[in-house]
Amino acid sequence: MSDVLAVLEQRDGVLRKVSHEVVTGARRLADALGGTATVDAVVLAAGAVQGTDALGGFGADKVITLTSGAFGAYAPEGCAMTIAARATTGGYSSVVFAASATGKDLAPRVAAKLGVALAQDVTDLAVVGGAVTVVHPVYAGKALLKLKLTGTPAVVSLRPNVFTPVQRPKAGAAETVAVEVPAGRVLVKQVKAVEAGVLDVAEASIVISGGRGLKEPANFKVLEELAAAFGGRAAVGASRAVVDAGWRPHADQVGQTGKTVSPTLYIAVGISGAIQHQAGMRTSKFIVAINKDKDAPIFKVADYGLVGDLFEIVPKLAEEIRKLHG
Amino acid sequence: MKIAVCIKRVADSETRVRIGADGKSLDEAGVKFILNPYDEFAVEEALQRRDAAASGEVVVLALGPAQAQETIRTALAMGADRGVLLQADRVPVDGLEAARALAAELKDGGYDLILFGKMAIDDYNHQVGPMVAELLGLPCVTTVAHLELAGGRGTAEREIEGGVEVVEFPLPAVLTTDKGLNEPRYPALKGIMAAKKKPLDVKPVTPGAGGVVVLAMTPPPERKEGRIVGEGVVAVAELIRVLREEAKVL
Fold first, then answer.
1. Is A187 a member of any domain?
2. In this structure, is residue B233 part of a structural domain?
3. Whether the predicted interface score ipTM is above 0.90
4. Is B192 an 8 Å CB contact of chain A?
5. Which of A117, A185, B117, B229 has the greatest count of CB atoms below 10 A from its CB?
């Protein structure tokens, strides 16, 4: 009874990329538990889910699609009930979610139903003496808590972009089961999508954020052009100052009262780098800062700094990136 | 409308974090404590809903040490009617234990709405609101950035990756609030004076130990010392080179 349940996400019948990270984290836990511990990956959907066949490659022993008409959109109550029931009947020792918008909503409901503790938004996982331990950033990332979860199952959600998917082939046997789910009280009536093709800052592998140094909202187009140069891998983020000023939507805000991002490359443009901003981006793999003030705090956390006029530097950078991708 | 707002006393985000002698918690010496910023949206929303209905009550509930009375007074100064402190030496690390203590107090309160901030900026636990909803068997919507209420039902919007979910739910309900929902007011001097006379019940509680053991609190790994690669547009070539050859991200 030392198996791991990985809770995946789909939207409109397509598996979300963050699910690869969840399977990777779950596999890591299963391997740490030792023996023959297996990973069951479960996805709730209205029908077949595109992309589940790749999950064996990331370490899923079994991929279970639980179908119900209620799962066309996110159904918080039906999902919580179904996952909690599965976790109980399957006798899992741990349940792994993504700390995405959906996962952060669902995991607490499931943990409360199971009567066990939850560690949200963890950046590392291990097994010590048979118990699951996690690393959870606190105080705006200024400290890390190492926690041991003593309940069974141990319920965790993984910070997006931290658990880099690795190939770890397992059977990935597919199983589809129709489930009965009562209509919930909380119903998602509509999902208003933002512009097609625009990546969310929390999920992009490259994030280019702008601050007051951009001087006015229209100037964000230089950042959008740089993002476009990366060919669909980059999203444009913003500092709190420019979101509060109404230049950019709150959905784009990186920092303590915005989103926490961990992209491979974070480029801070015209952002001084207050501690609240750093809270949202300091776990990025590489940080580049472009700022005219050489004493700006952002240079303290940046791997590479460029001092100067962003309106000269950023277009040149975009041009060079386009050449590389050309 | 009878509305409960669950708030938390947290260390200010400007705080320089020093780790306590136990190696497991914040050294609170010299730390400034504030009302959790996300809870301000919850308090503001409650006040606006009460005032729009021109009737009802906003009750502020906190779990925490005796000093959390000051935090409750801040919410009372904003305009809440009365406060309740569930006094405990510490807020449990296990969010479910905090939720259990709050749910026990909220259970028979007859609230139409129970509001929380979407998360606390100290522990980043992001879970107590929906856990309270589960314990009370109430519908719940988290990270609400827009809210409409009419005829005992509500419509909320919440941000998800690449979009916004429009969610319908019946009252009574538990909601957690996100930035964007409203602009929290600053307490006026008159409010601060009035807050001193508003009722504040203190009830001792003993939350359970829960299922989370803190093994250690450590500073984050230092980021490897970075460097300025150059000045001005001429340095772009060098930046490209280091991103390709050192960072290998291009």
1. no
2. no
3. yes
4. no
5. B117
